[in-house]
Amino acid sequence: MKEFVWPIRVYYEDSDATGVVYYANYLRFMERARTEWLRSLGFEQDRLREKPGVLFVVRRAEVDYLQPARFNQLLEVSVRIAALRKASLVFEQEVRLAGGGALLARGRIKVACVDAERLRPAAIPAGIAVEIRDVR
């Protein structure tokens, strides 16, 4: 898949008293990038909840923190699909300084598709799976 990249500015609220990004915020940055990737394919998560009645939820997250991001830096968060299964996706993501700068963190995130009412595993709807396969 060609890589999807989303820019994110580090705000004061993202950092601690020393101006370093708090570790859990990298997961938030990755979540935003995955949401924007899905939106770029024409899918809005609130609409997916209504019809066809599915949600995408994080099942597993592994993150390696390599260098700190700091207050007011511009970052780029990439999204790439490592695996597409019947009811899940595995993403490989990187957080870098903008402009192809230093690699700050990388993650491997497994996202499960679940029925919005029962919160039980559900197959990724065919229309979404087709779009995902097309960008791989």
Give the terminus-to-terminus CA distance.
3 Å
Q: Tell me about the largest β-sheet.
A: 5 strands, antiparallel
Radius of gyration: 15 Å
Shape: elongated
Order of helices and strands: EHHEEEEH
Mean pLDDT: 95
CATH topology: Thiol Ester Dehydrase, Chain A
The CATH architecture can be named as Roll
Strand content: 35-45%
Task: Offer a concise description of the structure.
With 136 residues, the protein is of the alpha+beta class. The protein has helices at 24-40, 45-50, 126-135; strands at residues 4-9, 54-65, 74-84, 88-97, 103-115.
What's the layout of helices and strands?
Elements: E1 4-9, H1 24-40, H2 45-50, E2 54-65, E3 74-84, E4 88-97, E5 103-115, H3 126-135
Describe the structure.
There is one protein chain. The chain has one domain (4-135): Hotdog Thioesterase (Thiol Ester Dehydrase, Chain A). The chain starts with a strand and ends with a helix. The protein has a five-stranded antiparallel beta sheet with strand order 1-3-4-5-2. With 136 residues, it is of the alpha+beta class. Helix content is 24%, strand content 38%. The mean pLDDT is 95. It is built from three helices and five strands; from the N terminus they run βααββββα.
From the structure above, extract its key features.
136 residues, alpha+beta, Thiol Ester Dehydrase, Chain A, 5-stranded antiparallel sheet, 3 helices, 24% helix
